[in-house]
Amino acid sequence: MMDYILVVLPNWFGETLFVTPLLRALRWQRPEAFIATLGWPQCRDVLLANPHINELMDYDERGVHRGLVGKWRVVRDLRARRFDSAFIVRKSLSRSLLLAAAGIRTRVGFANPKSGWLLTHRVPSPKVPTHKALSYLPLLEIVGLTVESGPYPYEYVVRDEERRAAREMLRASGAAGDGTPVILLHPGANWPHKRWAPERFAALGERLAATQQVQIVVTGGPDDAELVASIAQRMRQSAMTLAGRTTLRQLAAVLEQAQLVVSNDTGVLHIAAALRRPVVALYGPTSPTLTGPLGDSTRTTVIHHPECCPQIPCLSPERPPHPGMEAITVDEVYGAVCQLLVKQVAGQGR
Predict the structure, then answer these.
(1) How is residue 28 annotated by DSSP?
(2) Which three-class secondary structure state does DSSP give residue 311?
(3) Are strands 55-58 and 85-88 parallel, antiparallel or unpaired?
(4) Cα–Cα distance between 153 and 168 in angstroms, integer?
(5) For residue range 99-123, what is the model confidence (pLDDT) as tens digits?
C-alpha cells in the first residue's frame, strides 16, 4: 500500500532549499511513496524540477487561501489526498491546525509551546547551533527513518531548455559570447542591513574585470534595479545587468553558467551553492553556522566578522549599515575570489 506523505515548507525560497536534504532522504527511505509539499506559491519554482517530489501544493495565505474559507479549501484538498503523515519544518500554529483539521494521523514537527500540542511526534530544538538544513533531519529519525550520512548538499535542478536559454541570454548581452568567464555579483538581500555597500561591489567588479579577464554580471530582482544600476554606473569596465530581467528559474540557469558567484546572505547564494558553483558569501548580521551555504568546502568561502557585530542574528533591518558588513573590505573579497579561481584552474589541471 502506497504511503502518502506531506512536507510543509518554510516561507523563504532560500530556506525552501534547506528542506531538499530532507526530501532526498525521505525519498531514499520511501522510494514508492507519494510525496507532496505545501508552501508559498513564490517558493514553488525552487522545487519545480526536484526529482523527489510528486506534487507541489500551494498555500497562498495572502491570496486565495486567506480567511476561513480559504483555509477550508486547503483542508479539503489535503483530505482528498488522504495523507498518512506530514512533516512540518516551521513552528506554525496555523499550519499545524490545517494538518490536524485534515485528519492526517501522523504529524511530525518541532516541540514548542505555540503549536507542539497539535503534533503527534515532537523533536526538541537543537541544543547547539546547527545549520537549519541539518536541523530538519531529526524529524525523520523520530518516526524510525534512517538518515544517510553526510554530506547534505541542497538540490536545485536546471532543465535543459532553461540552460540553453541562459546561454543565449548571456551571448546576446555580450557576456560569455567569446568564452570569457563570467563572475556574477548579487548585491541584493531581503534586509538592507544584510547588503554589502554598492560602491564596494562596484570596486570589486572593476578590479576583477581589469585583472582576471572576466565578464562581470550583476543580478537582482525587480526591486533591485536601482541598486544594480548604481553598481554598473560606478564601474569603468562594462558590466552586464540583469535586475528584473529574469524569473527565478531563469536567474538560476544564469547562475549555473557563472564561473564564480559573490553574494550577500540571500536565497540566490544558496541556489548557487546548490548548483555547485564556487561562491564567496558575505555575512554580517546573520550566522553562517545556521544559514551558511552548504556544499563542497573547497568551492565555498564565507567572509564574516562576528566580533564586529553587537548581536547575531541581528534582527534590526531598519538600521543599515551593519558593522559586520562594513568590516568586510574589497581587498579580502578580491583575495577570496582569486583563491577560488586558482583552485578551479588547479582542479581542471588534474
Answers:
(1) H
(2) coil
(3) unpaired
(4) 29
(5) 999 999 999 999 999 899 999 999 9
Q: And the C-alpha cell for 235?
A: 564601474
DSSP assignment of 102-133, as one string? TT-SEEEEE--TTTGGG-SEEEPPPSS---HH
What's the CA gap between 53 and 3, in Å, rounded?
13
pLDDT for 176 equals 58
Q: Give the C-alpha separation, 300 to 179, whole Å.
A: 24
- Cβ atoms 4, 33 nearer than 8 A: yes
Residue 268 DSSP code: H
Confidence of residue 282 (pLDDT cuts 50, 70, 90): very high
Other C-beta atoms within 10 Å of 221: how many?
22
Q: Contact at 8 Å (CB) between 306 and 314?
A: no
275: which residues sit within 8 A by CB, 6+ positions away?
A: 156, 158, 252, 255, 256
